[in-house]
Design a protein that fits this description.
Layout (H helix, E strand, L loop, with lengths): L4 E5 L2 H10 L10 E4 L5 E8 L5 E6 L2 H7 L2 H9 L1 H6 L4
Parallel strand pairs: 1-4
Antiparallel strand pairs: 2-3, 3-4
Length: about 90
C-alpha cells in the first residue's frame, strides 16, 4: 500500500524558504511549478518531516481545502506540535 501526505498552504514560496532556513531535508531540489488537471497553475515541493516521512506541500486556496477535510481533522492537525512549529507564521 502506498499513500502520500499532502499539506495545503496559501504561500508555498514563503514556507519553502522558511523550511530551508530551519534546515529541513528536501526531496525536491527546488520549488516546482505544476499544472493541475483542470488547468490551474500551482507551486509545490516535497520535504521530509522530522520523522523522515516525505510530505507534499501544495499551494491551494483555503476555501478549497476546507471542503477536502472535515472540521475535526482540521482541529487535530492544528493541535499537532510539528504544525505549530512549522506554521507559526500564520
Amino acid at each position: 500500500m502506498v499513500w502520500q501526505t499532502t499539506l495545503y498552504v496559501n504561500d508555498t514560496e514563503s514556507l519553502y524558504n522558511k523550511l530551508q532556513v530551519a534546515d529541513f531535508k528536501f526531496v525536491s531540489t527546488e520549488l516546482k511549478h505544476l499544472q493541475t488537471k483542470d488547468g490551474k497553475h500551482i507551486e509545490a515541493f516535497i520535504v521530509r518531516d522530522p520523522d523522515g516521512h516525505a510530505m507534499l506541500i501544495e499551494e491551494n486556496d483555503r476555501s478549497e481545502v476546507a471542503v477536502k477535510i472535515n472540521k475535526r481533522q482540521q482541529i487535530k492537525i492544528r493541535k499537532a506540535q510539528w504544525y505549530k512549529r512549522v506554521f507559526s507564521y500564520e
